[in-house]
Amino acid sequence: MSTKRLPETTAHVRITQQSWQQGKIEGEVSAGEFVWQFQWCFRRGQLSVKPTLGRALIHEPLGRFLEQSDYRLEPGGDYAFTIRAEL
């Protein structure tokens, strides 16, 4: 019986701005050859990711990461999480 491992890619997140008053976190996420800018409006649960190229690959896993980690994230901080896909 062979157990085939799922592909994995590490996504790297850098927080560039954070405002508790506005309920917003901004930053950059990179995975594989892709780099995106994001804005997470956590009070409304809205995540904006740009550019559109490859956005479908990162939107859901980044949203889960931000929802789980938003109170621990700080501007200038570098973070990482794993995506179960090869980018």
Can you walk through the features of this model?
- By secondary structure, the chain is an alpha+beta fold.
- The chain has one domain.
- It is built from 1 helix and 5 strands.
- It has one helix spanning 55-69, and strands spanning 9-19, 24-31, 34-41, 46-50, 78-83.
- Strands 4-3-2-1-5 form a 5-stranded antiparallel β-sheet, with helices on one face.
- The protein is globular, with a radius of gyration of 14 Å.
Fold topology:
Blueprint: E1 9-19, E2 24-31, E3 34-41, E4 46-50, H1 55-69, E5 78-83
Q: How many β-strands, per DSSP?
A: 5
Average per-residue pLDDT, rounded, comes to 91
Total discrete domains: 1
Low-confidence sequence ranges: none
Strand % is: 35-45%
Q: What gross morphology would you assign?
A: globular
List keywords for this structure.
alpha+beta, 1 helix, single chain, 5 strands, globular, 87 residues, 5-stranded antiparallel β-sheet
Short description:
The protein is of the alpha+beta class.
